[in-house]
Amino acid sequence: MTARPEIEAITQRIRERSKPTRAAYLDRVEAAIAQEPHRAVLSCGNLAHGFAACGPLDKTRLSSERVPNIGIITSYNDMLSAHQPFETYPALIKLAASEAGGVAQVAGGVPAMCDGVTQGMPGMELSLFSRDIIAMSAAVGLSHNMFDAALFLGVCDKIVPGLLIAALTFGHLPAIFVPAGPMTSGLPNDEKARIRQLYAEGKVGRDELLAAESKSYHGPGTCTFYGTANSNQMLMEIMGLHTPGASFINPNTPLRDALTREATRRALEITALGNQFTPVGRMIDERSIVNGVVGLHATGGSTNHTIHLIAMAAAAGIKLTWQDISDLSDAVPLLARVYPNGLADVNHFHAAGGMGFLIRELLDAGYLHEDVKTVWGEGLRAYTVEAHLADDGSVARMRAAERSGDDKVLTTASKPFQPTGGLKVLKGNIGAAIIKTSAVKPEKRVIEAPAIVFHSQEELNAAFKAGELDRDFVAVVRFQGPKANGMPELHRLTTVLGVLQDRGRTVALVTDGRMSGASGKVPAAIHVTPEALDGGMIGRIQNGDVIRLDAEAGTLEVKLGDGILASRPPVVADLSGNQFGMGRELFAGMRAMAARAEDGAAAFG
Where is [4Fe-4S] cluster annotated to bind (predicted)? Predict the structure, then answer.
């Protein structure tokens, strides 16, 4: 089935815009493919170094040019719940590869930081750029040129985008992404949010807050709300980079292990040494990228991907823009309600039908390109399934259920929760910004109020505690962009602004920073570009200026006469406190080189 005309039209304009860069990229991929198999170009000394630590069987196999070798890139660490399950994956993958007649080696590790730990702390200012460090770290691992395919073990916020940038940079290699899955359900997300608001108001203490948080984040796996980590997993599946049905299986279960073994065998099958060669640089094209954006809208996914998808697409020579993302949002209905866009978590989403149901509904209604290549073969229709454990311990699949298991969580394309997706571009005399509307009630999507200007989230929180914010206002939090301080998430503002909104106040946020996949019920114009440090008009707003945020019309404006805002001198902020501590001094060069948010905010290329 072909995609709807509006989807085809947006895809075609991306294709036309990308022709020069995409052609240059594919030329590089084909030149690298022509050098296969890679180990053949290594001298005997090079190759001996590459398999010196292997056992006798693997040494014998790697001495041959006809035995495929998988490079494992892992984000394992045992401090963070999402990455801890990867501890056992290398041994599992090596055994599965050996049984299938191949070899697997850990090519390298990449850093994996958790925004949940660093939220509101100095370390958060390293977070966005960790994506680029991850891409470069993976490149170092794969640069040994020992490998015929790669398995990427990653889940969370910046890790998967960084790994995909690396995978596409090594586009001559097949690449499969292997997830660890979400933790089992704990304290309901709405109850967690309620306790957070009570704490912000001083009605409960730290002990009660910590107890609630610990019941929410309680075991191995990703957080269960639909933030960037779980949006990543949705993206990898709908873009054909997972094996079908792999995204939301809980860690440390027989099915999770069976899927990992299966991914290993599949990686061996799609190398240049087999008959189904699927290099990721050929596989991912404009249609794949559009499918990812469609999935993001249909599920109300993370605002972070308005940055990451642009950077990931660029790694394949594809020029995606915010306008493309916004226009796709206008065309794609919302089919999932997962916290913060609803009360359910990702385990409930999976139980209701999950990715197989979602992909089938979007395909049948013409919102997705079906004729794409995937790691599983030709066509996305193979992903309209649910994965189960067979009696022999392998993966069995059955067609996705015809009806949702819970139509309050997952619905059909004919009865969507809303006719458009959850993200929109705002434009006006302040610049361009992104707003996530799927969690914002319709009556809260148009806000007009005077500005109160802050240069940090700490300033805003201090004003709240001092009782200075019990009124209608638009919080302008600036000097939070990539060049200023690395563009940290301002998640700590969610609770405070939510309290004020619940008190009946009209509030909104305008910032050149990020708010993350946890962006919630308060209207927030984020990623404002140009940022304040880059000469953006957000740096010239003054207290009392009336700001109108209209998420329906797609506008963001200071209500001043023509030229008044631009005529003001830009404010100079003291950013010395962001330059040192927790490693921030090592990232000065990346801040200086960072692209604008609308261009992917990358610090290289």
Answer: 156, 223
